[in-house]
Design a protein that fits this description.
Shape: rod-shaped
Structural class: mainly alpha
Largest sheet: none
Distance between the termini: 53 Å
Radius of gyration: 23 Å
Number of strands: 0
Order of helices and strands: HHHHH
Number of helices: 5
Strand content: under 5%
C-alpha cells in the first residue's frame, strides 16, 4: 500500500486524513466498504486516485479549531479584559468571527457599523 499512500504521506496527511478521504470517496460514489477485499491496495488506489494531496481533510479541522480558540479567548476578554475608553471590557477589540467591535461607541468612532 506504500505506493498508493506515498503522495499523501509526503504532503503531510495523517491516518485520520486518509480515513476521512476514504469515507468521503465512498459516500460520494454511494458505495459501502465490501466485507472481503481481494486487492486492498488497488481498492484504496481507486478511492484515492482523484484526490489532490494538497487538499488535506484535516486542514479544515485545524482551521476551525484555531477560529474557535480565538473566539473563546475573545469571549473571555469581553468579561475580564481591559476596558476601552468608553468602559466596555475589550470593547475596542474586534471579534474574530464577525470583525465587529463590542463597544457601540468605538464602532461609531471608526465607522464600523453592524
Amino acid at each position: 500500500m506504500a505506493p498508493t499512500l506515498h503522495r499523501f504521506a509526503t504532503a503531510g496527511w495523517t491516518p485520520r486524513d486518509v480515513e476521512r478521504a476514504v469515507a468521503d470517496a465512498l459516500a460520494s460514489r454511494g458505495w459501502r466498504l465490501p466485507r472481503d477485499i481481494q486487492q486492498p491496495a488497488a481498492y484504496l488506489a481507486t478511492l484515492l486516485r482523484a484526490l489532490d494531496p494538497e487538499d488535506r481533510p484535516g486542514e479544515l479541522d485545524s482551521h476551525m479549531a484555531q477560529v474557535e480558540e480565538a473566539q473563546r479567548i475573545y469571549e473571555r476578554l469581553l468579561v475580564f479584559g481591559r476596558p476601552c475608553p468608553h468602559g466596555t471590557p475589550a470593547g475596542d477589540r474586534p471579534s474574530p468571527l464577525r470583525g465587529l467591535l463590542a463597544c457601540p461607541s468605538c464602532r461609531t468612532a471608526i465607522g464600523n457599523q453592524p
